[in-house]
Design a protein that fits this description.
Blueprint: H1 2-11, E1 18-19, E2 24-25, H2 26-34, H3 47-58, H4 66-97, E3 101-102, E4 109-110, H5 114-121, H6 125-165, H7 176-189, H8 199-227, H9 246-263, H10 270-274, H11 284-314, H12 332-368, H13 373-376, E5 378-381, E6 389-392, H14 393-412, H15 416-443, H16 451-484
Antiparallel strand pairs: 1-2, 3-4, 5-6
Helix pairs in contact: 3-11, 4-9, 4-11, 4-15, 6-7, 6-12, 6-14, 6-15, 7-14, 8-11, 8-12, 9-15, 9-16, 15-16
Amino acid sequence: MEQNANLKNYQSTSYTAPDEEHGQSLESQCLSNFFDDDGRLKRTGTVWTASAHIITAVIGSGVLSLAWAIGQLGWVAGPVVMLLFSFVTYYTSVLLSDCYRSGDPCTGKRNYTYMDVVEDNLAGMKVKICGILQYLNIFGTAIGYTIAASISMVAIKRSDCFHKNGKVDPCQISSNMYIIMFGIVQIIFSQLPNFDKIEFLSIVAAIMSFTYSTIGLALGIVQVKANGGFKGSLTGIGIGAGLVTPAQKVWLVFQAIGDIAFAYSYSMILIEIQDTIKAPPPSESKVIKRATFISIAVTTVFYMLCGCMGYAGFGDSAPGNLLTGFGFYNPFWLLDIANAAIVIHLVGAYQVYCQPLFAFVEKWAMQTWPNSQFITKEITIPMPLSKSYKLNLFRLTWRSLLVVLTTFISMLMPFFNDVAGFLGAIGFWPLTVYFPVEMYIVQKKVPKWSTRWVFMQLLSITCLIISVAAGIGSVAGIVSDLKVYKPFKTT
């Protein structure tokens, strides 16, 4: 239907004289210059634009916890675990990319979203389970981003306080006010209706992510130089008096694995990125595979540098947020810039991750109550120096309520590392491993008990065990933190 609509619009400016040489009408040739095989405007994405999208999606606030994660695992296991996660993420992304089109990789029906791919290949209850996990992960990520933003805002305030008053002032500051401030900003930006309207936020967020990551890396190198060498140990934080108990060590290792998984999470938007690539030849799957390899390689090198240099600078005392480990004095202005960049990045990242959830709920509401004025009516509001804004009361109400809920939960448990580990645990196996593996098996008709089938199932089971362990470790960390934290009071 979409293609027919495009054809109808185009007919007013074209005619259908035959092209004798090629057996096509000039109209068909002209249409092929403007529209893809599905009737949508031609996609223009390349391997480089796709790589940029993936790198922007992957490199986020999770990079700040990698020094702490390596501190729990040590110099041997830390880098090895990071490399394993990069390999698994790349491998399953390749499997997922082959499912973008149904059937033929160049001419088959397109699937525009992750959920479309699942529905096309698996259907039934698995589609519902995938939807629940995906949107739960998005909701949890919004909470994690709110917590991380408040931590950075508090760090800026404490830095300025220490610089002004000296060490005699403890500068105890509650994060609640800053969580609320972040929530208010998100309520405003959440009224932007869709992805097309938040493009500027994504661009700014990408620049900010590289800004604070680069500052963290540079400060880690400076810290190593100041120490006169590398800190840390082969096995990470030790067990014993004044350190941690064996049980705590186990939970911390599991939580660290979850943090690393969180840092590599992006599969839920891979199909959306693939849908921006221009039509074959070569096929979109070949282009996205190259882009995935480039982006995962770049990201892993960046993660290795930030995580390892952070651990080398602080050793087993590496902080959960790398930027909070450099003190509040010198260079305080550079740390303020880095923390401000985190806040700005997370404003955009919050919106990027929540847009699929916003769109899903609003589409469901429209289908359920198509005659409701509250849901469908848009009020035109004139805007100075710009086009008018269309206000939808349902969008205003429900999106604001969602932001309020994530803000409230963030105030109840502002533990970035534990929350990040938990999100990584619950999202890694199903969204990054299980569904891509199962869909690829169906799409390519991989014979049961063949070597490839057995390898894929073993990989899936192994990642399931890792996800469960990481989830348990993160929950244990949250429970431990709640024992000493008093909601809305602790500074």
